[in-house]
Amino acid sequence: MAASGSERVAVELCKGINGLDKVVLRDPRGSTAEVYLYGAHVTSWKNDHGEELLFVSSKAIFKPPKAIRGGIPICFPQFGSQGSLEQHGFARNRFWSIDTDPPPFPTNSKSFIDLILKPSEEDMQKWPNSYEFRLRVALGTGGDLMLTSRIRNTNADGKPFTFTFAYHTYFSVSDISEVRVECLETLDYLDNLQNKERFTEQGDALTFESEVDKIYLSTPTKIAILDHEKKRTFVLRKDGLPDAVVWNPWDKKAKTMADFGDDEYKHMLCVEAAVVEKPITLKPGEEWKGRLELSAVPSSYCSGQLDPQKVLQSS
Ligand SMILES: O=P(O)(O)OC[C@H]1O[C@@H](O)[C@H](O)[C@@H](O)[C@@H]1O
Question: Rounded CA gap, 311 and 304, in Å?
């Protein structure tokens, strides 16, 4: 039967900013997501009201070798600056391919795309390992955004390799000073602003009034980000990703970043599902899987009345 005029394509390949290839995913109820092949970078996730849920800087540079500022950069094979590679590794500024024949991977979604990254000769000079990195980006019914990474060691010489990783998600928030993050309180963290020293979080939910750059360790599989003004809660569910990085550059650092507006720190928060403290080691033939699921639900949150369990259960 021919598709009716109103029927929209669930997966569409088209051109984005600067002519870069991007894939648009559409859910029948109206949610959408956009993924650039440059970096396998999710740059947009909209709910069924067309509201953007991710932050992308108005100054983002959609041009190699700079990674796109905002959305969901993929940090691999190195998170941050600890290691011999460039900050956050190279996966976020490589051109990925569409994986037309991925190994079986069940899904309920009709709107998804499989991307793959393999090392170039130049990459092999920097990081002499052979791998296949498969990323599936899917929109679930109800508009949830799901990212699954499968990284396989394909070294022919029997060598294991070790990596760290993050989904460096930039959430769009109405006003950072009205935002709370639940489920990380009482946990240990490494503070990037204090030589990666280890501390224990003491307070209630996290709130924000200055620069923050912390790596929370052994975090629960669910984290909630409550946007009081928008009456919206983001729920982040993760698997295979024990750590969670929380980052906001605040005003001074923002001014030093060429691809970030001076006041944009007010409207974003990075909460990054990650593997940092205990890197992953894969022997040849072994595969690692890291999964992130994001949903945005209306929250009836009022200051001081939040029961995080209820928020998480209601989603
Ligand atoms: O500017 P980049 O390389 O995208 O990194 C942004 C930030 O990313 C965070 O994940 C790091 O913890 C910060 O230290 C860093 O400043």
Answer: 14
pLDDT (tens digit per residue) in 61-97:
999 999 999 999 999 999 999 999 999 999 999 999 9
Interface predicted TM-score of the whole assembly (ipTM), two decimals: 0.99
- Domain segments of the chain as ranges: 11-306
Q: Is 98 helix (H, G, I), strand (E, B) or coil?
A: strand
Predicted pLDDT at 2: 35
In contact, 145 and 293? CB cutoff 8 Å: yes
243 lines ligand 1 (CB under 6 A): no
11-306, CATH topology level: Beta-galactosidase; Chain A, domain 5 (2.70.98)
The DSSP output letter for 101 is S
Of residues 34, 182, 264, 272, which has the active-site annotation? Answer: 272
Residue 6's pLDDT band (cuts 50, 70, 90): very low
247 CB under 6 A from ligand 1? yes
Q: What is the pTM of this model?
A: 0.93
Q: How far apart are CA 277 and CA 309, in angstroms?
A: 27
The pair of three-digit structure tokens given for residue 100, joined into one six-digit string? 């037309």
> Is 7 in the active site?
no
Residue 9: DSSP 8-state: P
Flag whether 69 is marked binding.
yes
pLDDT band of residue 253 (cuts 50, 70, 90) is very high
Is 92 annotated as a binding-site member?
yes
Rounded Cα distance, 224 and 271, in Å: 10
Cα–Cα dist 225/221, whole Å: 14
Residue range 226-248: mean pLDDT, rounded? 97
* DSSP assigned state of 314: H
Neighbours of 180 (CB within 10 A): 20
- Main-chain phi, psi angles of 241, to 5 degrees: -130, 85
Q: Is 87 annotated as a binding residue?
A: yes
- The residue behind tokens 């809660």 is 233
Answer yes or no: are the C-beta atoms of 235 and 184 closer than 8 Å.
no
